[in-house]
Every structure is written in C-alpha cells, then in structure tokens.
Amino acid sequence: MSRDVRRKFIIGLLSLFIFVAGCGKTENAIPAASSTPTSVSSDSIAADGPFEWPEAKPAEAGIDEAKLQKIDEAVATKHKKTLSVLIVKDGRLVYERYYQHKGKDDPTGVFSVVKSVTSALVGIAIDKGYMKGVDQKLSELLPDLFANVDDERKKQITVKHALTLTAGLESNDENMFSSLDLGADTLAKPMVNEPGETFIYNTGMVHLLSIALTKASHMTTKQFAKKYLFEPLNITEFEWSTDLQGYYNGGTLLSLRPRDMAKLGYLYLQKGKWQGDQIVSENWVEESFTRYVTAEETYGYGYLFWLSEFKDKSGNPVSVYEASGYGGQHIQIIPQWDTVIVVTSDHESKDDSISDKLILDYVIPTIQPE
Q1: Cα–Cα distance for residue pair 326/266, rounded to 1 Å
Q2: Which of 134, 177, 186, 264 is at 20 to 30 A from 66, Cα to Cα?
Q3: What mean pLDDT comes out for the span 44-55?
Q4: CA atoms of 264 and 257, how far apart (whole Å)
Q5: 359 Cβ contact list (under 8 Å, min separation 6)
C-alpha cells in the first residue's frame, strides 16, 4: 500500500477524534507537570512591515503561461479534489489557484504537514537552550512519563530517534483515534526494533516531542510556535487542536492557509532565514534535509521531512524536500530550482495519491527550466 493511502487514512481517523476532544482547550493553559530571473531573497521582501507575497507573472520567472493552463485543465478533469495550487519561484508568487469555492484566506487542515512544523520548533528550542540537543533522551525531558516503562530500552530513545521516526516502538497510529492519553499510550507500545535502527511511521512519537517542548519551555506548543515561528512569518490565521491532556498535537490537527504553507517552505528554501532574521538555524535546515533512514517505498527521511528525487529533462537528479499530510497536503521544496510548491486537497478523497500525480505529471513539467 502506498505511503499516502496506508498511513494517512489512519491519521485522518485520529484527527476526527482528537479534533472534537481538543475543542474548548484554552491557548494559555499549560498542562500540569507530571539569465535566470533574479531571485528575491528573504532579506529584501517586505522587510519594513508584515510580510505579503511579492507577485510576478510566470514569464518573469521563466515559466510558460500557456503550460500553466494544463494544471487548471488537469484539476477540472482528473484531480477534482484539489483545493489549491501555489508556486513560488525566485522568491515570488507566480501561480496561485483555488478550487471548490476556496480562497486565499481559507485555512486548510494540513494533517501530517504539522510534523515538519514540529521539527522546526524542536530546532528552535535547541538553539534557544530549552533542549540540550538531538541526542538528549526523551526520558530526561519527560521523566514522569518514562518512570515506569516496561522496557528499559525505551529510556534510550532520543530526540533524534523521534525526529527520524526510528524510536523502535510499534506504531500506535491504528488506535490513536480511541486513545484517552496519547502520550502514555504511545510509550506503552512494545519495542520491535532497537532505537535508531528502522523507520516506523509513528505519529505518537512526534506528539511526545510536542509534550517535551511544552515541559521544557513552560509554554504550550502553540504559544511557542506563535512566538518563535508564526509571528516572525506573519502567520496569524491558524487553528490547532489538543489531546485530552491539553497538549497540542505534534503530528496533526493544524489548519493553515496555503500562502502560509508557502512561507514555511520558503523559510527552509532560504536555509532558515526570513526578512534578515535567522528563524531556524542554517545547520538545522541542513540536518533536517539529511537522509538518516530509508522510509517507505523509495523515500528517505530527515528530521520529519520526506526526501526524494526525480530526473529532469537532461536526466540529472533533482532533490525534493517535502512536508506531507493526509488527504493530499503538500509543501515541496526544490532548492535547485529555487521553487516551493504548495498543493492542498479535499481530505475526504478516497485516493490520496491524486495530489502526488498532479504535481509530478503537471506542475513539475510546467516549471522545469528549459
């Protein structure tokens, strides 16, 4: 079964459960302790005020506008569940389309795209001294949760193991929608591999990072994100839900506007720099885009980013770094082309692969340099 179909359907079931459970949680409540066109750099865009995407005609970015029409045609005929397609090239928004009565101000549930957001927050927390580093053990950050584990190997799970989904625990995803204590239930699963050995998709492990961030910073994950990531990027319209203990979910349940998804992609394209400020360290971006393990199918995995590549017209490899969510939500970062692609889709679609096909069959060929 494909990466999207198998793992994201389960997360969707979880989302329906925890979204309802999380409603009504207050933001401030911290759980009790227990000739190429010139690129526009992030230094120069809207440096004196709130960020707004500079826009440009596709031709100014070397893109044939006639070819872009094929994307619209594909959405109308083959990929009808698509909600938005955005292309940022050379620092400018060159293509922006919305479908099914959606608009630029409508947030979309991004599901597991949140994992990549959590990765950024962990990197910021390490840089600011809230966490010691990726080799710090989660048992040190969450001593109460780990106090009575049934397998001492669980105490060896590090932040890096959670970031690379190599903790060794059996995944709790299939039962997450019925979990009354997501953190404890994730940790209660048996060890099936030694930490660091094997990729196992496990949304609960990423949620443990959110709990650890809350404990270490004495802020909710949402508060931390607003202060250190969202406000610097002028991301103001979003919704985030919690588990039953009040912890914001580290692996799903965030809604963002597509334009704001593009900001997150462009932040990483610019090696963590935004309007002259280093929001995420350049070293963290590099580490996040490093292949630590082979994930499902042919994908590699970094710090909660999917890594892949395709061949350009000349047969040369082009690297893609991706935040991906259930139901066809994508932020694709292509440094070699100075490009960010955002696609959102109706998560009720039974075929999660539709957005992958739309990108590979229509978006990539359209923006590929001649």
Answers
A1: 21
A2: 264
A3: 69
A4: 11
A5: 330, 332, 341, 343
Structure tokens at 249: 């979910």
What's the farthest any 2 CA atoms get from each other in the chain? 62
Over residues 118-138, the pLDDT tens digits come to 999 999 999 999 999 999 999
Mean pLDDT of 264-285: 97
Contact call for residues 325 and 112 (beta carbons, < 8 A): yes
**Does residue 195 contact residue 156 with C-beta atoms inside 8 Å?**
yes
Instruction: Name the token pair of 185.
Output: 């239930």
Whole-number pLDDT of residue 20: 36
SS (H, E, C) the chain: CCHHHHHHHHHHHHHHHHHHHHCCCCCCCCCCCCCCCCCCCCCCCCCCCCCCCCECCHHHHCCCHHHHHHHHHHHHHCCCCEEEEEEEECCEEEEEEECCCCCCCCCEECCCHHHHHHHHHHHHHHHCCCCCCCCCEHHHHCHHHHCCCCCHHHHHCEHHHHHCCCCCECCCHHHHHHCCCHHHHHHHCCECCCCCCCCCCCHHHHHHHHHHHHHHHCCCHHHHHHHHHHCCCCCCCEEECECCCCCECCCCCEEECHHHHHHHHHHHHCCCEECCEECCCHHHHHHHCCCCEECCCCCEECCCCEEEEEECCCCCEEEEEEEEECCCEEEEEEHHHCEEEEEEECCCCCCCCHHHHHHHHHHHHHHCCC
pLDDT band at 353; cut points 50, 70, 90: low
In tens, the pLDDT along 197-242 reads 999 999 999 999 999 999 999 999 999 999 999 999 999 999 999 9
Rounded Cα distance, 123 and 2, in Å: 29
